[in-house]
Amino acid sequence: MRLSLSVLLVTLALCCYEANAIVCPSLAKDMTAFLFVHEAIYKPKLQLAYNPPEAALNAKLQVKSCTDKIPVLQRKLIAGVLVKILAKCAL
Predict the structure, then answer these.
(1) Closest CA to 32 of 83, 66, 69, 71
(2) Residue 85 belongs to a domain
(3) What is the pLDDT of residues 21-42, one digit of tens each?
């Protein structure tokens, strides 16, 4: 049984090695909002868009509270890097 599972995984890896690297526009908007939008606006937006479990929502908001402490100029630099990454993925 283990050998057949291994063969299946190798076959899938060889036959389906290409992945779609085009970034979903809503992901790009979410990443930008994560960096720049106030938590009071971001939380309901996140709940409406994804309906995440409460634990996941709280975890993301906890990380957001840390990124909100980063100066705006540095967040703009981070956003610039994200734009470059998204541009590379869209090729």
Answers:
(1) 83
(2) yes
(3) 566 777 788 888 999 999 999 9
What predicted TM-score, i.e. pTM, was given to this entire model?
A: 0.69
CATH code for position 30: 1.10.210
User: Dihedral of CA 79/84/89/90: which sign?
Assistant: positive
Which pLDDT score, from 0 to 100, does residue 20 have?
Answer: 59
- Would you state the structure tokens that stand for residue 35, as one six-digit string? 């960096």
Residue 57 identity (one-letter amino acid): L
The answer to whether 39 and 65 have CB atoms below 8 angstroms apart is: yes
Instruction: Name residues of the chain where pLDDT drops below 50.
Output: 1
Angle between helices 25-36 and 39-50 (to 10 degrees): 160
Decide if 21 contacts 89 (C-beta within 8 A).
Answer: yes
Does residue 57 lie in a domain region? yes
Identity of the amino acid at 74: Q
